[in-house]
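Working notes for the structural subgroup meeting. M.R. asked for a predicted model of this chain before we commit to crystallization trials. I am recording the input and output together here so anyone reviewing the notebook later can reproduce the run.

Input as submitted:
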Amino acid sequence: MVTLALVAGCATEQEKKDKQPAGLRVHIENKALTTGSALPITLLRSAPVELSITPEPILTEAHILSATLMDSPGGFVVHVKFDETGAWTLEQYSASNPGRHFALFGQWGDKLKETRWLAAPLIDHRIANGVLIFTPDASREETEQLVKGLNNSAKKYAKEKMQ
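Returned structure, recorded in token form:
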């Protein structure tokens, strides 16, 4: 009888973990020297890099249609597909800011307690397909939680848009 309770408890805990949301904020690098227009951040835990960004994100998880964890040579990447508004925003900012970086901030886990600047991909071309691909500064397990959470958030926002 005790074994059944433990198994049921674990299943409930896993179900709870599988339904957790996640957040993703996409900022743009800001090279302006005007006070208040740029926010300094530090990315990459193993080899820290400083970057100045716009304080307000240009995209959030509210614009995400789906997220996928994909294997790549030497590791893995996150593939984020944005909705129509997000795709348009991504295209506009990528076309008008070559040579700058996107700065990606993630939140995931229980009560979104895991937070970190995940990546700063260089903008080297116009992104017209609404897809942003990046290698996160995170373990595979953390990235799996992030991706699952982003898909949970995407479903939530899609339902809200339909109402």
